[in-house]
Amino acid sequence: SRRRPARSEIPPAVRTATRLMYLGSAVTLLYVIFGAAAAHHYDLLRQYKMAGDVALTAGWGGAIGIVCWIVVATSCRRGHGWTRIAATILLALHTVGMLTVLLETHGDPAVRVATIAIWAIGLAAMILLWTHQAYAFFFAWGKRAR
After folding, report:
1. How far apart are CA 22 and CA 2, in angstroms?
2. How far apart are the C-alpha atoms of 31 and 24, rounded to whole Å?
3. Region label for 107, one of left (φ > 0), alpha (ψ between -120 and 50) or beta (otherwise)
């Protein structure tokens, strides 16, 4: 089996991107909590459709987001080159989700701030994964897997 890269073998850009991804999973967990609170707020106001939409987005979307953050971060740390493409695709999907949240949640600053924070963390991690340092790291570790 393929050995994992030692900490000293991981360039700073990849190490920082991995840390950002773990931070993203923590912020996504906060998003789930804020989303549940917002759904409860809408439910109290008898806006059941909005409560259902917010609960569905925050609950399932957040859970899937947490899993994606952790899987991509772990794979990135292990030198899998596909993580760069996955991070880019996930950021594109989150951009669509972020725009939906920003346009459809009125008066929920906590949910909006969490959504923007998650997007910004994803953008920063993705940019780091496309640096020359990261390319060299993933290329070298990809050759070892063959």
Report:
1. 23
2. 10
3. left
User: Average pLDDT of the chain?
Assistant: 83
Q: What are the tens digits of pLDDT across the range 1-50?
A: 467 888 888 999 999 999 999 999 999 888 787 766 666 555 555 555 55
- Asked if residues 7 and 55 have their Cβ atoms less than 8 Å apart, the reply is no
More confident residue, 58 or 137: 137
Q: Which two tokens stand for residue 43?
A: 């439910």
**CA-atom Rg of the chain in angstroms:** 17
Secondary structure, 3-state, the chain: CCCCCCHHHCCHHHHHHHHHHHHHHHHHHHHHHHHHHHHHHHHHCCCHHHHHHHHHHHHHHHHHHHHHHHHHHHHHHCCCCHHHHHHHHHHHHHHHHHHHHHHHCCCCHHHHHHHHHHHHHHHHHHHHHCCHHHHHHHHHHHHHHC
More confident residue, 41 or 144: 144
